[in-house]
UniProtKB/TrEMBL annotation:
Source taxon at top rank: Bacteria
Domain called Type I restriction modification DNA specificity: residue spans: 2-148
Classification via Pfam families: Methylase_S
Family statement drawn from the similarity comment of this UniProt entry: Belongs to the type-I restriction system S methylase family.
One of the record's GO molecular function terms: endonuclease activity
The protein's name: Restriction endonuclease S subunit
């Protein structure tokens, strides 16, 4: 997750979009300075191109693929996972949209914690099958979007 940004560090206009849980996957309504962005990006965790970010609070499971644009994300509410080459990000994006997260039923405001991720089980095919599955669903999503 990204380093915490405080309200007083944001503005309604600016250099770098700051996505909060309510604007994640949509249009930003807050921005941070380029200087703060560069400092935090260098010092703290930051996604790499292709990483799949997921909402971990409120509307759980909303995903966005990080494309490399200058943008910053709300700490602990928007997360991603570092993994090795045994997991394909396009497959991971599919899993995030389908999986039933373990241990979050019954709470008023749903929230994903590390424990939920670790306890949630799903089948992990070999990397070539993951890529094919991920590409298939990505194409299907694009096809549906074109027809809407």
């Amino acid at each position: 997750m990204c380093k915490r940004i405080f309200k007083q560090q944001t503005a309604t206009k600016g250099d770098v979009p700051f996505y909060k849980i309510g604007t994640f996957g949509g249009e930003p309504d807050a921005y941070i300075s380029k200087e703060l962005f560069e400092e935090y990006k260098e010092k703290f965790n930051y996604p790499e191109i292709g990483d799949v970010l997921i909402s971990a609070s409120g509307t759980i499971g909303r995903t966005v693929e990080y494309t490399g644009k200058d943008e910053y994300f709300q700490d602990s509410n928007i997360v991603w996972f570092k993994h090795d080459d045994r997991v394909d990000n396009t497959f991971l994006k599919c899993i995030y949209s389908l999986v039933k997260w373990e241990g979050i039923e019954g709470s008023t405001i749903k929230r994903l914690y590390n424990e939920n991720f670790l306890k949630t089980k799903f089948t992990l095919p070999n990397i070539n099958e993951q890529k094919k599955i991920g590409e298939y669903f990505e194409q299907l999503d694009n096809f549906i979007a074109l027809h809407q």
